[in-house]
Amino acid sequence: MDQWRLVDAGMLSGLTTQTIYNAVALARSEGIVPDTLILCYPKNPFICIGYHQVLNLELDVDFCNSRGIPIIRRCIGGGTVLLDKNQLFYQVIVGRDNPNIPLSVRGLFETLLKPVVYAFKNLGIDAEYKPINDIEVNGKKISGNGAGLVEKANVLTGNMIFNFDYDTMVSCFNVPSEKFKNKITTSLRERITTIKGELGDKTPNMEVVKKELISSFEKFLDIQLRSSKLTRVEEELIKELNEQYKSDDWLFMHEHRKPDLVSPSKTLKISARSRIVETAFKAPGGLIRATLEIDDLEKIVDILLSGDFWMYPKEALKELENTLIGCKINEKEILTTIHDFYKATNIKTPGILPEHFVKTILSAKNAKA
User: Fold this and answer.
1) How many structural domains does the chain have?
2) What stretches of the chain show up as alpha helix (H) in DSSP?
3) Using CA atoms in the order 209, 213, 219, 220, what is the torsion angle rounded to 10 degrees?
4) 194 and 310: one domain?
5) Burial 343-357 (b: 16+ CB within 10 A, else e)
6) What is the Cα–Cα distance from 87 to 12, expressed in whole angstroms?
7) Which one of 90, 102, 230, 314 is most buried, counting C-beta atoms within 10 A?
């Protein structure tokens, strides 16, 4: 039976809930620590955005600042979510050299979410795994999950939602009107449920849920979890990562990387021979956004791809953008270019096909400045 480490970190700052698994993954990649399960929850509410998201396109930054809600970018993909002390986080860090854990993204989710589903069932909630990354109860999400690769370690993070502040979440979104916000709030209530919503007065406390989760991970992964603290190396890494995550270079990485392409308007004519266009497409694996500068010959002068999807390795998105520069907005040319890129780099985008990027880009052709 394999022995893993259990780090019950308890209550942490919002920032540290996101840097702790990054630090552990770095230490695991160096062989300093074994495979690890972290349990924690944040002291105060914060908004967490995915690695590939453009902050200003997703969030009403002024609202978040006025309410004192920190915004934190994590090191893995996925979408925007409000996180608070009403959610228990489980964070799995496992070396890619572990033969018992699949390397494929779908296999990783299926394997590591089985214990979570089982824990919900033991709590009296009829949960089920829904590919690619959700756990649902009667069609409503009760746990959101993300995964990513950090050097030589796979990371999966997720939450068990005791309660959820729908109104605050929607208020943080960058949406055009109050009417639209009301629609989103209604939609969220229809799509997300909670432990309290399912169990009412029978809702267990967090310690009970922790014990159930630990037992389930041991049972389904056939492992023994041994309680331990972070090493000195990991603590130092967390300090370094906290500074990195607080920097504008990290938080506004896409705005800083291609500032000319980040505009509040959907189309912007910047000269007689060039315009900037923003498009979006909802694929099974998440929303894809494309902001393009297009010349009068319908060629891509520059492009910024973003969204709440996953890409492994995550750095490959910049390479894809560079590959597309100079391409004409033509279905055959764009599709061939992206297919060739997938083959050459062996990137993985769960729930996202090359054709989905093509549809996103092609829709720019009909957008008028």
Assistant:
1) 2
2) 14-29, 55-58, 61-66, 105-122, 166-172, 178-191, 195-199, 206-221, 232-246, 248-251, 253-257, 316-324, 331-345, 354-362
3) 130
4) no
5) eeeebbbbbbebebb
6) 12
7) 90
pLDDT tens string 150-195: 999 999 999 999 999 999 999 999 987 777 788 888 999 999 999 9
Is residue 280 within 8 Å of 287, Cβ to Cβ? yes
Instruction: Give the three-class secondary structure for 263.
Output: coil
Residue 216 domain boundaries: 2-251
Give the number of other CB atoms < 10 A from CB of residue 322. 12
Q: Are residues 322 and 232 in the same domain?
A: no
Domain end residue (candidates: 198, 224, 251): 251
The residue among 92, 108, 89, 90 whose CA lies nearest residue 100 is 108
pTM of the model: 0.92
Q: Can you name the residues that pair with 225 across neighbouring β-strands?
A: 4
Does 228 share its domain with 263? no
CATH number at residue 318: 3.30.390.50
Segments in 10-144 forming alpha helices (H): 14-29, 55-58, 61-66, 105-122
Give the CATH number for residue 188: 3.30.930.10
Listed in sequence order, the residues at least 6 apart from 144 whose beta carbon sits closer than 8 Å to its beta carbon are: 78, 81, 133, 134, 158, 159, 161
CA end-to-end span of the chain: 62
For residues 141 and 25, state if they share a domain. Answer: yes
The first and second tokens of residue 268, run together, are 């912007």
Question: 339-367 pLDDT, tens per residue?
Answer: 999 999 999 999 999 999 999 999 987 76
